Amino acid sequence: MRTYTRRIRDKWEAGERAYGATIQMPCAEAVEIAGYTGYDFVWIDAEHGTLDLGDINTLVRAADAVGVDAIVRVPDHTPSFIQRVLDAGATGIIVPHTSTAAIAQAIVQASKYEPEGTRGACPATRAVGHYTQDWIADYRRANRDTLVFGLIEDPEGVANVTDIARVGGLDGLVFGPFDLSMALGYEGDVAHPDIDAARTRIVEATRNAGIEFVAIAGFGSGGLAAAVAASGSRIINVTGDRGILVTVMQAQLDELKNSLISQPGKGQ
């Protein structure tokens, strides 16, 4: 019988924060390491990078194996892709460019079975144990536990965020400062005052609607950690596979080069 993880919801119910890591590369071992080192979820990024549905299925299996939630950032709000990701057994989805309440409503509908949504029903999928589960109990569990997050990263989304946050069935919102900075002409300057103002507006909208603000803490930044704490977020994306590899590999190379330079007669 298939067992289901609900680490994020369990953390919320216990009054604790859930911590996750982005996975952009098709590497199941990275998912396993995230689980072994204490993360609660992996954010499988199918919007950026080269992951296909086969890769997603493998990464979701790895998440199941180590008992962490698998949240998939889908490429867009196409219902068929959302359904296939959930049929693979993902715990939930993050949908980019959720810029209107209508889009938010559509992604909730695509993520929930009847009568709460329009997700296609099939008891043969991996998500329901390939015909081995109690269908009635399982689809009700899925409607209750599947996590649905919208990503606000456009000026239109920021303008509409109050209405978006009020859409029933939406569990939380994520802020995408980099895309917003590009849309506003700031060329990736995520520290611009207008970006901070947008973040504050999104945090307030989620708080007023009683849903979650999903924070992205960055890598090794105490200032961002303070901002995360101030937001009251209970679900935090801490780091990612590419960021860790670049940071650690570069640091170790630089350290060794600098050590060798300090030795007489030695260059790089």
Quick one: overall form?
globular
Q: Give me the secondary-structure category.
A: alpha/beta
Low-pLDDT segments, ≥5 res: none
Rg calc:
20 Å
Helix content: 40-55%
Strand content: 15-25%
The separation of the N and C termini measures: 57 Å
Number of strands: 8
Strand order of the largest sheet: 1-2-3-4-5-6-7-8
By DSSP (H or I, 4+ residues per run), the number of helices equals 12
Described by strand count, sense and barrel closure, the largest sheet is: 8 strands, parallel, barrel
One letter per element, helices H and strands E, the order comes to: HEHEHEHEHHEHHEHHEHEH
- Mean pLDDT, nearest integer? 93
Domain HpcH/HpaI aldolase/citrate lyase: 29-214
Organism: Mycobacterium saskatchewanense
Keywords: Lyase, Metal-binding
Family: Belongs to the HpcH/HpaI aldolase family.
